[in-house]
Write a structure and sequence with these properties.
Blueprint: H1 2-5, E1 8-13, E2 16-21, H2 24-27, H3 35-46, E3 55-59, H4 65-73, E4 97-102, H5 107-117, E5 126-130, E6 147-151, H6 160-170, E7 176-181, H7 186-198, E8 199-207, E9 212-219
Parallel strand pairs: 3-4, 3-6, 4-5, 6-7
Antiparallel strand pairs: 1-2, 7-9, 8-9
Helix pairs in contact: 3-4
Length: 226
C-alpha cells in the first residue's frame, strides 16, 4: 500500500528504467501502478509477443506503464536483437502504433509519463487519447486494432456493459484482447461470464506470486496466435 501512495514508481522493462509519477491523492486508482499492469508487461516481454507493425490500444491506462512498455517493445527485432535500436535503423513500418487511453481526468498525468519515458524517436508511435467506455467510440475506427490491452480494468460492475461495448467496437475478427486482472470479487467472475458470451476466452498466464490472471479473448471461434 505504501508504494501506491508514493509519488514515484520505478520499473525495468525493455532494457530501460521507467520512472512513473503517481498521484493517488488527486486521481485515486487511475494514478497508481497496479500489479496487473506489471504482470502483463512481463508477459509481453517474456513471451516475445510480436508487436512490430501492430496497431495496439490500451484501455484504462492510468499511469501509462503498459502503453509505454508496449511502445518500447514495438520495434523489437526477432532472434535476440537488442531493443535499443538506433534512430537511423527505426523504419516507420516496423514499429507498433500504440494508442494509450483513459478518461479525461487522467490524461495530463498519463501524457506526462509517456513523454518522459519514451526516447524521442518512439514518441510519434504513441498517442494518448481520451476514451470513456461506451461514450467516445465515434473517435475510434471500428475494428481498427490488432491488439487490445487492459490491466486491472475489471472492478466496477456498473462499467461492465460499456467496457464490453467498447471491446466489441474496437475488435475485428483478427483482433486479440489481453486482459490482466486479479479476481477479487464475485462480480469479477461475472464479467468473465459476460465476456465469454461475446468472445472466445482462455487463460494464458497466471502469476501466483501476485495472484494475477491474464485472459486472451477473440471474436467467436476465431483463434489467432500472437
Amino acid at each position: 500500500a505504501r508504494q501506491l501512495h508514493s509519488p514515484w514508481a520505478t520499473f525495468h522493462f525493455a532494457s530501460r528504467t521507467i520512472r512513473l509519477q503517481q498521484d493517488w491523492r488527486r486521481l485515486g486508482v487511475a494514478a497508481v501502478v497496479w500489479d496487473a499492469a506489471v504482470v502483463l508487461c512481463a508477459y509481453l516481454e517474456m513471451e516475445g509477443i510480436v508487436l512490430r507493425d501492430r496497431s495496439v490500444i490500451e484501455l484504462g491506462a492510468g499511469t501509462g506503464l503498459l502503453g509505454i512498455v508496449v511502445t518500447l517493445l514495438g520495434p523489437k527485432e526477432p532472434a535476440g536483437v537488442k531493443y535499443c535500436i538506433p534512430h537511423a535503423a527505426l523504419r516507420d513500418v516496423d514499429c507498433a502504433r500504440v494508442t494509450i487511453t483513459d478518461r479525461a481526468a487522467a490524461l495530463e498525468l498519463l501524457e506526462s509519463n509517456v513523454q518522459a519515458n519514451l526516447p524521442p524517436e518512439l514518441r510519434p508511435r504513441a498517442v494518448v487519447k481520451e476514451l470513456t467506455w461506451g461514450k467516445d467510440l465515434d473517435n475510434f475506427s471500428p475494428g481498427a486494432f490488432d491488439l487490445i490491452l487492459g490491466a486491472d480494468i475489471v472492478y466496477l460492475e456498473e462499467t461492465f456493459a460499456e467496457l464490453l461495448q467498447t471491446l466489441e467496437h474496437l475488435c475485428s475478427e483478427r483482433t486479440v484482447i489481453l486482459l490482466s486482472c486479479r479476481i477479487r470479487y464475485e462480480r469479477d467472475l461475472k464479467f468473465l461470464r459476460m465476456l465469454r458470451e461475446r468472445f472466445s476466452v482462455s487463460e494464458v498466464h497466471y502469476d501466483s506470486s501476485k495472484d494475477v490472471h491474464i485472459y486472451k479473448a477473440q471474436r467467436g471461434g476465431h483463434k489467432d496466435d500472437l
